[in-house]
Amino acid sequence: MSDLAALGGTPVRSIPYPPWPQFDNSERDGLLRVLDSRNWWANQGTEVRNFEREWAEFTGAPHATAMTNGTNTLEAALLALGVGQGDEVIVPDWSFFATIGAILSVNAIPVIVDIDPLTGTIDPTLIEAAITDRTKAIVVVHVSGSVADMDAIGAIATKRGLRVLEDCAHAHGSTWHGKHVGTLGDAGSFSFQSSKLMTAGEGGAVITKHQDIADLVNSYVNCGRDPGTWYYRHFRLGDNWRMTEWQGAVLRSQLARFPEQQINRAANADLLNLELAKIPGVTPQGRLPGCDSQGNYCYVVFVDPQEFGGSRDQIRSALLAEGLPLTTSYPAMHSFDLFQHADGLAPRIRDFSHYPPYARESFPVTDRLAATSLWFTTAVLMGSSEDALDVARALEKVHGARHELASVVGVEY
Ligand SMILES: Cc1ncc(COP(=O)(O)O)c(C=O)c1O
Questions:
Q1: For the chain, how many structural domains are there in total?
Q2: Could you tell me the distance, in angstroms and rounded to a whole number, from the CA of residue 308 to the centre of ligand 1?
Q3: Under a CB-based contact definition with an 8 Å cutoff, are residues 13 and 390 in contact?
Q4: Does the residue 17 lie in any domain?
Q5: CA–centroid distance, residue 70 to ligand 1 (Å)
Q6: pTM value?
């Protein structure tokens, strides 16, 4: 019989990793506090406003606006940065749908560029060539908390007069030269959806150092209103993207717990980075020297299918059977189905003729990383160092039994 659990052997782990999301009586008390207050709406209560203050303090940003989710945050931030119809926005190919979806939703034109193979974040050496006289902004994504090269990106943005929006959905706790992500560009967008490092099921926040951008974000989130004016005056085409008091209360507890969790996750990630580098065909996601803290939304590993004698999906199946929780990566955004057929952007965008031909574009680094990466859930970093080391043990075991991988059925998703 094979050693591999996928083929009948004993799994590396039979005990589950710590459950996610985590909570205790603090969240319970917060929810009851909101219930009893009868102020369930942020415009009447105190939880969301307090969370905004606490989140601003934690990130070091002068302004924070709590919102419905980390997709609407991107839209609100783009609008507040003045990005709209016909403007071009440079964006890396490797991210969740929301990053490009938000650009399309404000009627701007995404201009996709490839990524850096070490970190999976936007390759700054490709940005200048993508700039035209219609370019308004650069959106960067700190993939799984590994911070994009914000020095290089900031220099290009300053030189070319562009705005920078950081998509920090994966990067709570990530810093660049000691500064929290989201404070490095003009605005930062966070998600508190259930898989994120702090969660209320759904939720998001925009942070910024600019008073005028904060004022506009607050207005777009709140039906285009302005503070101190009659409730039924609407000064711009905003939306209702307000967070509820329930979410605010839960997120205050999640934030209070975050720093301690982050210390443990970071220590386990550092340990795994060292251990995994010893296994042939396995490369942990890297960090640039400026990234002095990485908030690991998940733990990302690149595998070499040739070295393993099996596909990435077969490796993933083998690891799942060993008791490890992991998914595969997002596909490259340019390959999304919505770009493959004429109606993919309708009815929002009917005339697609002046958009790049995304489906025919090629971004080789993204294609390669998307096809060869494994995303372990953050739970693997949330136990002891021995728990974390099971990732290395399982990868080592699968590599050791690579001649048998051909018999393992790959799960794609
Ligand atoms: C990189 C990135 N940006 C934005 C989002 C959107 O966040 P939300 O799900 O809160 O809308 C996500 C969510 O997974 C994400 O991974």
A1: 2
A2: 32
A3: yes
A4: no
A5: 5
A6: 0.98
